[in-house]
Amino acid sequence: MVFSTEPEKVTTAGTLNDGGLDVHNSVTLRYNDNRFATIEYSMLVQLSETVTISGTTGRILIHTPAHVASEVSVIRSSGPGKEESATTKFPWPTPDAGYSCFLYEGEAVTKAIQSKELEAKEYSLDESLGIMTIMDKIRKEIGLVYPTDAN
């Protein structure tokens, strides 16, 4: 997870379609020490599909498409209006990377199973459960209930 801890508060402003599916949502996660994360997703409009991680001395930009990014920039601020940037490119190993966005996760899980491990070190059970807890809170706040969760 971004801050290695569960957020103190989850706030959402989302839209469900006539079938009850979430089609647009803006989510703010508030953590201790005035740290925030914002997430926006939509099936209604085209979004930038980038990730920006901002801090007191600069930011990290994961270029579009963020779910299969091949470019990351680190932008350092040395004062008002003064920035320097360094971009790293890392090409995907296959030409159809847009369709293989879970390549590394799949490889890590396969390796863990073959090694008789209970979880992949890159994707721990605790992290997965933490993400699911956040997703449960988001769904609850916007009124999204899947049929399997209705009981």
UniProtKB/TrEMBL annotation:
Keywords: Oxidoreductase. InterPro entries: Gfo/Idh/MocA_domain. Gene3D superfamilies: Dihydrodipicolinate Reductase, domain 2. It comes from the Eukaryota. The keyword Manganese does not apply. GO terms for molecular function: oxidoreductase activity. The keyword Cell membrane does not apply. This is Putative NAD(P)-binding protein.
